[in-house]
Amino acid sequence: MKKLRLILVLTLVAALLAACGGAPAGTTAPTTVPTEAPTTVPTEEPTTAPTEPPLEPIVNFYFDEPEGFNVFSSAENVQILAGPNGDGSSITVMMLPTPMDLSELTEENFAESLGLLGDESQAPALNAMEALQIDGYPACLMDYTMTSGGITARYYAYYITDNRSTVALLFADATADGSWADEYAAAADTIELLVEGEYVPADTTGLEQYDLGCGLSMYAAPGMELVEVEGFAAVLADSASTIMFIEDNKEEYGLYGLTVEDYASLYVDGESILGFEKDACGNVATSFIGQGDDGVFYFYYVVAKNTADNFYLVQIACAQENAMVMAGEYAQWCATITETP
Fold it and tell me: DSSP E strands: which ranges in the chain?
């Protein structure tokens, strides 16, 4: 995949405080009265700047990573991509559930403020620091060099905040000649921050389109094969993933008038499936870990889809250990499901 999608599951609570002011109660009138009224009327505008509206919370983000970078590890709200040459170049992306006051970062305190410490407790060497805006949000670019884990790299670290949470993207260039610098800058230029109701657009680069034979088509990993399995409208599989479609005809089951959310709720069992919500790509989705008939534990990504005459429950399964890496890919594949003519 060319575009990195970071699937975020964050609960951000914001408190709004309001203060009202006025003349103190109980004050008395002055005992002396001016003998003359002012002869001029002030014409200057009030000097107090209007209060700016709060920034909308960032709920997700994405960018175009350089060619050849692939997911090396993934955990909740953190993902690391390794470069193609095995030299230690990497990209780390994080969503931190705390705000940063970027105005307090200085050349003297940046390492301590950001918790940066290299090998042998050596602080990084700062090359440059720049305040900027990304997609309308305050941001800071920290350019520093640090040796960590025996690898010396130049870091281009972008920190973006909505005053509730912080997006951090750390581009590490471990090449001797700084050969990733231009591509990292180009990647940073593509950063898009998403707020509530905005979704990551599906990117089909490197994917293959499949006609599923049940009135649907979708993009997924290349080289997958359609297989017939009793009880499913379609099954698409390869050695890493299996995509299964359950078809529920609206007329047969009296489902006309239901929304896709209503339909999805019919599959909530309170055990494996606890509820559905919109994922980063706009799918009505959920996920769970389940044990297969072979005794192996699998990760299931489940999406509900709505067409003119049918609802579909789409289940994508992979080995449990691949869950965090594949969840974003599955969300993107499901976003490409469409009715065939």
Answer: 3-5, 60-64, 70-75, 78-82, 90-96, 125-134, 137-148, 151-161, 166-173, 192-194, 208-211, 216-220, 225-227, 234-237, 242-249, 277-278, 284-291, 297-306, 310-319, 338-339
**Chain segment 119-174, per-residue pLDDT in tens:** 999 999 999 999 999 999 999 999 999 999 999 999 999 999 999 999 999 999 99
If one counts every other C-beta atom within 10 angstroms of the C-beta of residue 314, the result is 23
In a 13 Å sphere around the CA of 203, the CA atoms on its Cβ side amount to 15
Please return the burial class of 325, using the count of CB atoms within 10 Å of its CB with bins 0-12, 13-18 and 19+: middle
Helix (H, G, I), strand (E, B) or coil at 81: strand
Q: 223-255: per-residue pLDDT in tens?
A: 999 999 999 999 999 999 999 999 999 999 999
Supply 78's token pair.
């953190």
Place of tokens 């973006």: 160
